[in-house]
Specification:
47% strand, 18% helix
Length: 227
Amino acid sequence: MIYLNVCEGIFLFRPNRFIAKVNIDGTVVIAHVKNTGRCKELLVHGAKVILQKANSSKRKTGYDLITVWKNERLINMDSQAPNKVFLEYLQSGRCIEDITLIKSEAIHGNSRFDFYVETIRRKIFIEVKGVTLEKDGVVLFPDAPTERGVKHLNELALCIGEGYEAMVVFVIQMSNVHYFTSNNKTHSAFGEALVAAEKAGVKIIAVDCMVTENSLTINNSVPIKLT
């Protein structure tokens, strides 16, 4: 995944969850934050950020804030990116071999899943979650309570009972991490649902990403530790 027309800036503050004030070469601009999560550990005053210049003059904001430096670690925080890079990963054949069908935003019963994939012998529903929270090399999800995330896990478990395969994929929007785990301190119900989903047969996958100032690419599998 490639970003065009990127530039550096210095994060100043975030008036609300949708926008940020950023200093670009001495000029303060308003940028759209492509992640409505808290991201308090990322968006700190003085942090170096990467922005993409908008290609439409009709927008209220001229830039999108997509990536941030956390000390020496470059973290992509674009919430739309995980699905895009995972689609590229599927299309490459590295995740699932011999794919004959990929359908995004697949509706099944009362559920809408990020992807539905078929091979000659397999039918798989997949949910993708982006991960930006890191502490001492350990990455965690979620960074805020997510009833929607719990619902997705429960619905994936139901798919197993109907004869489908099911996966939840945690796309870690950074590299060089030790392992992934659920953030039980923030939302214990999600951690419990993740363990229950795994016991029901849902496959849990975590992958890190190669992050540059203008690109994001899924790289390697990451160990998973659940409690």
